[in-house]
C-alpha cells in the first residue's frame, strides 16, 4: 500500500480492488483540503456512501459497475508505466482522469459514471452543505407539509 493511502475498510458491496480504485478517484476528484471543505474520508464517509448506493443497485447494474471499475483500474497500464490506476501518484492519476474525460465515447461514458458516483456520494452528505450555503430541502426549512405521492395540480 502506498504512503498516504488509507487502508480500505471491509465493505458489504464493494470488493477490496473496487474500493482501492474508488479511493484513488475520491482523492483526485475531491481535493477537499485545498478548498477548506470537509474531508471526503474523515468527515464525510464517501466510500461507505458509495458502498451503500452499490448495495441498492440491481445485480446486473452492480456487475456492470464492477466491470467498469476493473477496466478503469487496468487501462492505464498501456500508457502510464505499466501501473494500475490505484497505484498512480496523484498528478498521474489526475492526468489519466483528464484523458478519460476527453477520450472516446466509451471512455467519456465510464468517466462520467464514476465521477457522478463519487461526487454524488460526497455532496449528498449534509456535512458538505454549509460549504455550498445550502441549508437543506426548502420543504423542511419552510415547514412545507409533505403531500406524499399526490398528483400535480392540473393547469
Architecture overview:
This protein has helices at residues 16-29, 46-55, 59-74, 90-101, 105-123, 138-141. The protein has 155 residues and is mostly helical. The chain has one domain (16-128). Helix 1 (16-29) crosses helix 3 and helix 1 packs across helix 4 (90-101). The radius of gyration is 18 Å and the shape is globular.
List its salient traits.
globular, 155 residues, Transcriptional initiation protein Tat, single chain
Shape: globular
Work out the number of β strands: 0
- Biggest sheet statistics: none
Based on helices, strands and strand pairing, what is the structural class?
A: mainly alpha
- Low-confidence regions: none
- End-to-end C-alpha gap: 60 Å
Helical proportion, percent range: 40-55%
H and E order: HHHHHH
Can you count the helices? 6
> Oligomeric state of the chains?
single chain
Protein name: Transcriptional initiation protein Tat
Organism: Alcanivorax quisquiliarum
What order do the helices and strands come in, and which of them pair?
Elements: H1 16-29, H2 46-55, H3 59-74, H4 90-101, H5 105-123, H6 138-141
Short description:
The chain is mostly helical and 155 residues long.
